[in-house]
Specification:
The complex is a heterotrimer of chains A (278), B (308) and C (307). By secondary structure, chain A is mostly helical. Helix content of chain A is 74%, strand content 0%. The chains are: A mainly alpha (278), B alpha+beta (308), C alpha/beta (307).
């Protein structure tokens, strides 16, 4: 197992994709920090940010007309709020970074057929699967924590102190987000093992969140699903868990995450076990 | 306070992890060695992930494993060659012996005249001489392989030694209508070496050319940075495996009726190398060239290994 | 008895609409260079995939180094293989690709990578990216991977694909060297009979998933060698006659109806007269001696007739 992790790491640092992914990560952080407003690539179901409360004397339209620079100045002069917490609430963006990892570590091996080299030596399928899962998780978690702390320290550095929370709070919030992040990773890993070819994987994975959210809203509208249940969609989870969630919400959402994780890993493993290696 | 605890906790868990990893790796190496011991395999020991910690140990183990396997293969090959040699030698020794016995029988039983008896005895003598030759050859070679001693060295005149060797075979060549042509540019060429071994080397080379060659043998000795002696002659049969020409017991004549032991060139190679030189063979256009090269020992300003 | 490295017993592999392998039996001994000969789609690659557990068998058994089932999987470490097209990472160099797999297997000495590259003459291009490789170089890198980890059994699927004649000859020497120096066993598949003939000592002819014949090189030579085939109803009598009257000893009795004479000095008219005069019924006397391709074709035809 450790050998496989070392080997995949060796390959990862020699790929171009991972550096691209880290660059995009830093870019996201940069934009969020500079513009003092978090944003996410998802359907805007419920942000829960406090921004609008602060600047209630401006209308929404007027707010949107402001340039980024003006926005920034305005925000810096306000009473301040936990910007970093809100940025973390938008961690659904990390999903798109994780796609890089899953693609490089897993999908590329299927597209290029190199997986047969691994399987025909003394590594069984389940061990190979386990190693890849562990490796993808380690990488994604590393990126996740990197995201939090780089953002946190950049925020303190470039913005006012009043826009930052304490280190403990941030760490706590980050850790709370761990299960849904793991769930996201499991979805991508499972998909990679099921879909195999990089092109197919990318086509499915990239729009997945938005498409899923669309379908969910449609469902909600037509079938009148309780508002409360919408709160268990992954992006919602990431947001809600950053703003003092209730204990019952926490364990309920964790349960949903656990189910997702088990389901996708199982699906991925079964699919992998049965595949004919070309 | 909390920070100290966290740091301590992290450090100790890392240390614990490394310790466990090392234990795991050790156990893994032992298991692999146990399996390797029981099988005849090429597989080497693999690391299970501890990296630099045990990599050096594993490398040294693998080096030893490979050495052992290599020795085994060499031993098997030598053994195989020795077995072949035994079979060949016993056959070779038996042939002249049986033949001699046969003639003795004739002398004892049939009513032969004195003249005829003398003739038959002469043949018996020839057979026994041949037998002696073979036994000498065999023992000389086994001495060569087993000896550890450095050959004694003194100042030798290469030209003189070559001439002595040529003299050994002069009559044999004449009898076949062949000549030995000796090309050299100075009457003396000294080398710090062993006279007897040089003599055997040249004897074997000239004798080899007598048995396998046709036409004249040309011996050329040249002095450049090294001393180069070339033995060139046309071959009777060019069906020679140049890769194995210096191998012990390699002969082209399977039937062995020509009485080849296959040891001649092997002795040449062994002796030449023991004297610090090299020998090589080239087959071109039906001509076989065997080149012996000796290097001067001390290429210093004051004393040269050899002088003219 | 020589050690058996691989043995399959009635191995079958069925896909939804066709059968890739149909009760195949084969035995590979230690030190063999075993040639799998068959047309495209005959099942050569399928056998290789089953034995290296890239795919599951539908029926039958196989033993690797004397072990079967789950224990056989542990022995996979002693096998090196190149199956189908060589697959590597385009963005990495030859050295990096091999290093990736060396890390995976736990090889601690980087010199093994250099040795593998040297064995296939890829040392000059070790720092060239894989996507810039020619077909022959890709093939050679695949072979390098197969031999890198000091295996006892090397399985190669059409290794000479894309190699030039010098490369093929060098590869042949490499196989023989590995076999004599380290006792490595090879299983090589090809559809180029002449090349396989030069290097292998045992052969398996396979067609449409069925084994046509498993034969050693000596036996193959005998079958293909120029000879006279004599078909009679009493081969014993025939044998006695040709020995006593014609003084021919270089012959072989194939079965109760066929006898083959390898002696080139045979005069057919004499033989004919001799047999008839002694009351032996002759059903045919003809000269044969076939090329490998023709032998293979004849095996396929026989199989076609049988099924």
């Amino acid at each position: 197992m450790i050998n496989m992790l070392k080997a995949d790491f060796y390959r990862l640092v020699r790929s171009k994709g991972i550096y691209f992914a880290i660059l995009i990560l830093l870019l996201f952080i940069g934009i969020d920090i500079y513009s003092v407003s978090p944003g996410s690539i998802a359907l805007h179901i419920d942000t829960g940010t406090v921004v609008e409360n602060e600047l209630s004397d401006m209308t929404r339209d007027e707010l949107q007309e402001l340039s980024m620079g003006d926005m920034r100045n305005m925000m810096l002069n306000t009473k301040g709020y936990a910007l970093d917490r809100d940025i973390i609430a938008c961690n659904i963006n990390l999903y798109y970074i994780f796609i890089f990892v899953a693609a490089i570590v897993i999908a590329v091996e299927f597209s290029g057929n190199t997986v047969k080299n691994t399987l025909s030596s003394a590594i069984s399928r389940h061990r190979c699967f386990l190693s890849k899962v562990v490796f993808v998780n380690i990488c994604c978690l590393a990126l996740f924590f990197l995201n939090t702390y780089v953002m946190y320290f950049a925020n303190i550095l470039f913005n006012n102190k009043n826009l930052a929370s304490s280190l403990e709070t941030i760490t706590e919030v980050t850790l709370l987000q761990l299960p849904p992040i793991l769930a996201l990773v499991s979805i991508l890993t499972g998909l990679a093992f099921i879909l195999k070819k990089t092109s197919v994987f990318n086509t499915v994975a990239i729009p997945l969140i938005i498409v899923f959210q669309l379908l969910l809203s449609l469902f909600a509208t037509f079938f009148k699903i309780k508002e409360e249940w919408l709160g268990f969609e992954l992006q919602e989870m990431l947001v809600k868990l950053t703003s003092n969630p209730s204990d019952s919400y926490v364990w309920k959402s964790y349960l949903v995450c656990a189910v997702i994780i088990v389901a996708f890993y199982l699906a991925g493993y079964l699919s992998f076990k049965k595949t004919e290696i070309k | 306070m909390l920070l100290t605890v966290i740091i301590l906790g992290a450090t100790s868990s890392i240390l614990l992890f490394l310790l466990l990893l090392q234990k795991y790796e050790n156990r893994n190496i032992v298991n692999q060695l146990r399996k390797i011991k029981t099988k005849d395999t090429n597989v080497l020991v693999h690391s299970k992930g501890s990296g630099k910690i045990s990599a050096n140990l594993i490398n040294e183990i693998n080096f030893l494993l490979q050495e052992v396997r290599h020795s085994k293969v060499c031993y098997q090959q030598k053994n195989h060659a020795l077995e072949r040699m035994m079979t060949n030698i016993s056959h070779d020794l038996r042939t002249p012996l049986t033949s001699a016995m046969g003639y003795i029988q004739i002398i004892q039983n049939a009513g032969l005249t004195e003249e005829e008896k003398r003739r038959e005895l002469a043949i018996v003598e020839k057979r026994l001489i041949r037998l002696e030759e073979l036994i000498n050859s065999f023992f000389e070679f086994s001495q060569v392989i087993s000896s550890e001693k450095e050959p004694e060295k003194s100042e030798c005149n290469m030209i003189a030694i070559l001439e002595e060797s040529i003299a050994h075979y002069f009559d044999d060549y004449c009898a076949k209508g062949r000549e030995i042509v000796f090309q050299y540019s100075q009457p003396r060429l000294m080398l710090y070496s062993n006279k007897n071994m040089l003599l055997r080397i040249f004897d074997n080379l000239i004798g080899n050319a007598l048995k396998h060659g046709i036409g004249n043998l040309v011996i050329a000795i040249e002095l450049t940075e090294t001393i180069q002696i070339t033995f060139k002659n046309k071959l009777y049969s060019t069906d020679i495996d140049m890769n194995h020409i210096f191998d012990e017991f390699y002969t082209t004549d399977i039937s062995r009726t020509k009485g080849n032991t296959g040891l001649g060139l092997a002795i040449v190679k062994q002796f030449v190398e023991m004297l610090g030189g090299t020998v090589s063979a080239e087959l071109f256009d039906g001509m076989l060239s065997l080149t012996v090269v000796f290097y001067n020992r001390d290429f210093g300003a004051t004393d040269c290994g050899w002088r003219v | 008895m020589r050690e058996i490295v691989l043995q399959t017993k009635q191995i079958s592999k069925h896909y939804k609409n066709f059968t890739a392998l149909d009760h195949a039996d084969m035995t590979v001994y230690r030190g063999d260079i075993y040639g799998l000969i068959g047309r495209n789609g005959a099942g050569k690659t399928t056998i290789m995939k089953i034995v290296t557990s890239l795919t599951d068998k539908s029926g039958g058994e196989y033993e690797i180094f004397g072990k079967r089932g789950a224990e056989a999987d542990k022995e996979k470490g002693r096998i090196g293989c190149l199956i189908e097209n060589p697959a590597f990472f385009g963005g990495m160099t030859a050295y990096q690709n091999l290093k990736y797999y060396a890390l995976q297997k736990g090889i601690t000495d980087n010199r093994q990578i250099d040795e593998a590259l040297a064995l296939v003459n890829l040392t000059e291009v070790r720092n060239k990216k894989f996507r810039k490789f020619s077909l022959g170089m890709k093939q050679r890198l695949g072979i390098a991977l197969a031999v890198m980890d000091n295996p006892d059994l090397v399985i190669l699927d059409e290794p000479i694909n894309g190699l030039d004649p010098i490369g093929i000859s060098e590869l042949r020497d490499t196989f023989k060297k590995l076999r004599s120096e380290r006792g490595v066993t090879f299983i090589i598949s090809s559809h180029i009979l002449s090349e396989l003939y030069m290097v292998a000592n045992r052969f398996l002819f396979i067609e449409k998933g069925r084994v046509l014949k498993e034969i050693t090189k000596e036996e193959l030579d005998l079958e293909c060698m120029r000879c006279h085939v004599v078909k009679t109803d009493d081969t014993k009598h025939t044998a006695a006659l040709i020995e006593q009257e014609l003084f021919i000893t270089n012959y072989k009795v194939i079965d109760s109806r066929e006898l083959r004479i390898y002696d080139e000095n045979l005069k057919i008219d004499e033989l004919n007269r001799l047999l008839i005069e002694n009351g032996v019924n002759i059903f045919g006397i003809y000269e044969t001696g076939i090329s490998l391709e023709d032998y293979f074709k004849s095996l396929i035809e026989e199989e076609g007739v049988r099924s």
